[in-house]
Structures are given as structure tokens and as C-alpha cells.
Amino acid sequence: MIPGFPEQFPQLAQELGPDNLRILIDAMSTLELPQHRKLIRDRMPVDSVYFLVDGEVAISVEENGQQISLGHLGPGQWLGEVSVLSGEMLASSTVTTLTPVKLLRLKHQAFEDLLNNNSAVAGTLLRHLRIMLAERLRTSLAAENIPITSAEVERPRKKGGLLWTLFGASGG
To answer: What global pTM score does this model have?
Structure first.
């Protein structure tokens, strides 16, 4: 077992159960980075989803040559998930380590293999991903004082693409 995963992702580890957790862990590798290192660069190719086990990262985007801070993330968060879901395999932001970090890396191909070959792992990962993305959206909208209505959340989606495949008409 990779130290830190069950402690930082307890709900995910519990829902996967020991056998499926082992399958997920076996598909991952460990990555440790020092402080002030760029893990992901905005609009650059990304080949992995990362699970932050220890440390803190800053999230930013570049607009007109200026860095705009979007916030900080700590243990228990996923990074790089937008690139795999969008199908573009490009980063939507820059992730910079603020402290030394320990991450678990799940390459996109391994992620897709899990989605295609193990429905129990796939369902659990996607459910947790939906919850995390919805929480980030709520937090972002609250910080900007932007109200969101149930009509906007329930808007029908077009069929096609990985998001439709993953979330279907329910959208999460």
C-alpha cells in the first residue's frame, strides 16, 4: 500500500474496498517534487492525473502575460483531471509546488484502462471526481458571488465526447 493514500482520500479508499484499492494503487506511481517546481503548465500537454498526498500547490492561469492566482490546494485533492476529461490533454492551469509535495501519478492511459476494464473502480473514481469538481465550482462561484440556479445545473447536454460518456444525461 502506498503510504498516505487511505489517509488523504479516506472516502475513496473505503468505497473502493481493499481489492479495488490495490488495483488503483498498482496503476499509480509516486512522484515527489521540491518547493517552487511547476508540475503542470497552463495550455501545455498533460499525460497524467495526480492525487496530492502531501504538501501544498498553487493554481494559476496566465492572462496577457500576467499570472492570475486561482488558489491553493492541499492533500486530498486531484490535479490534472480537466485534461483527461476534456479529451484535449492540455492543462487548464499552472500548478506550482508551494512546499515539497508527494503525489500519486495515474497516467491518462492507465486511467482510461481502469474506466474501460473495471466498472467498480471506474464508477467510484468518476463519482468522486464529480463531487470534487462540483465542490470546486460551488467554491469558485461563491467566491465571485455568482448565483447558480437549478435550471443552469439541469440544462440538457449534447451527446458525444468523454464528458457525455462519463456523466451521461445526468451530468453528475
So the answer is: 0.79
Report residue 135: phi and psi, to 5°: -65, -40
Q: 111: Cβ–Cβ under 8 A, 6 or more apart, which residues? A: 27, 49, 84, 125
Q: What is the CATH number of domain 5-141+157-165?
A: 2.60.120.10
DSSP bridge partners of 153: none
Every domain of the chain and the residues it spans: 5-141+157-165
Residues 52, 74 contacting (CB under 8 angstroms): yes
Residue 147 to residue 90: CA distance in whole angstroms: 29
> For residue range 40-54, what is the model confidence (pLDDT) as tens digits?
998 888 999 999 999
Q: Which three cell numbers stand for residue 90?
A: 492540455
Task: Please state, in angstroms and rounded to a whole number, the distance separating the CA atoms of residues 11 and 86.
Answer: 25
